[in-house]
Amino acid sequence: MLVPRRTFLRSLTLAGLGALLPWARRGQAAPLAPDPRTRWSALLEYARWAPSAYNVQPWAVRVISATEAELWVEPTRLLRVTDPTSAFTVMALAMFCECLRQAAGAAEFGLEVEPASDKPLDYATRERQLFARLTLAPGADPPLLDRELIRQRRTSRLPYDGKPLDLALREKLTATAARHGYTLHVSEAPEVVDFVLDLDRETLFTNLDRDADRTELAQWARTTDSDAETRRDGLWYRCMGFRGKLMHNFFHHHERFRARWKRAIIGRAYKRSMRGTATVAWLTGPFQTRADWFAAGTLLQRLWLEMTRAGVYLHPYGSIVTNADAHRRFLERVGPPAAPHHALWMLMRLGHSHEPQRSYRRNVEELLFELT
């Protein structure tokens, strides 16, 4: 009897995870299954939880052998308007690779990533494009972080508890960034925190007033539970902290929100959702080439997992980084990067909150494909 491909792939994925669990309970290195698809599927069960801008999940994987696979980019999951250089998409792909590396490390395998190009992603093509070749190499040292942190990591847009970042954690994160060639700046000055929160609120409206930006973002807005569960990607209203109907109207009936008094009400509600923020942080460093973007993504994933281990959440303020005017105003307030060729590429608030809603991710069988 023929088994549907989706059912077959799901069974392989579950078989791969089942093979790993007994070893995890004993605290030993978890072996990787010998079957190529089962092996890579077990690793993808972790990597699929990597973060990406708007939760677009731009990755697709082609299995070659038990030790080789290819990472491809889905053309329908590119942000041609809001990420015109592809910098933040490349960062997301790097974070995906880092999650694969952490998952493989639990079985004492290393992951080698060979880039397919040193150029930005090609936005002209409507075909999948090869991003990197992946190779598993046995004998690697165990990872420093528990791979289960990949599943636990979340973005929290909830109010925080008002407590500043623990000094020991702050020093650890700063040292990690420095080892990777980047600088982590942290501020707990109330005037700087308030400035960032106000600038973020203002920039949100500025960006969404642009028709092209709003149209692209609207494609990823999941304003009902059924839509979020079916698509398993994008920005689910429950994770964004807005009511679904309000979020739908804001994107699809934007003209209703042009009145100044309406924006004032929404702006105050948005800022209230940020109450309790005591710490903001930003990262600067090389950010000009595809290799720089990949290195930045790798670092960010490692920092994020370290924060997850410490029970700290983050909420990125990408709009301030990508909006030229807001970017300039922020640097005028805090000062430029130390080196002329360095750039601001991440701004975020850090803190403790209630456990936030976890956004959906596509299933492993949706990530795997064969060349036709």
Give the helix proportion (percent range).
40-55%
Order of helices and strands: HHEEHEEHHEHHEHEHHHEHEHHEH
Give the overall form: globular
* Beta-strand content estimate: 15-25%
Strands in their spatial order, largest beta sheet? 1-2-4-3
SS field, number of helical segments: 15
Measured distance between first and last alpha carbons: 25 Å
* Count of extended strands: 10
Tell me the structural class: alpha+beta
The major sheet is characterized as:
4 strands, antiparallel
Written overview of the protein:
With 372 residues, the chain is an alpha+beta fold. It is 46% helix and 16% strand. The chain has helices spanning 5-25, 36-47, 87-105, 148-152, 167-179, 190-208, 211-218, 225-231, 237-240, 244-252, 260-272, 290-309, 318-322, 324-334, 364-367; strands at residues 59-63, 68-73, 109-115, 129-138, 183-187, 221-222, 235-236, 279-286, 313-316, 342-351. The strands form 3 sheets. Strands 1-2-4-3 form a 4-stranded antiparallel sheet, with helices on one face. The protein has a 4-stranded antiparallel sheet with strand order 5-8-10-9, with helices on both faces. The longest helix is centred in the N-terminal third of the chain and has 21 residues, at 5-25. It is globular and about 60 Å long. Mean pLDDT is 91; it is low at 1-28.
Topology, pairings included?
Blueprint: H1 5-25, H2 36-47, E1 59-63, E2 68-73, H3 87-105, E3 109-115, E4 129-138, H4 148-152, H5 167-179, E5 183-187, H6 190-208, H7 211-218, E6 221-222, H8 225-231, E7 235-236, H9 237-240, H10 244-252, H11 260-272, E8 279-286, H12 290-309, E9 313-316, H13 318-322, H14 324-334, E10 342-351, H15 364-367
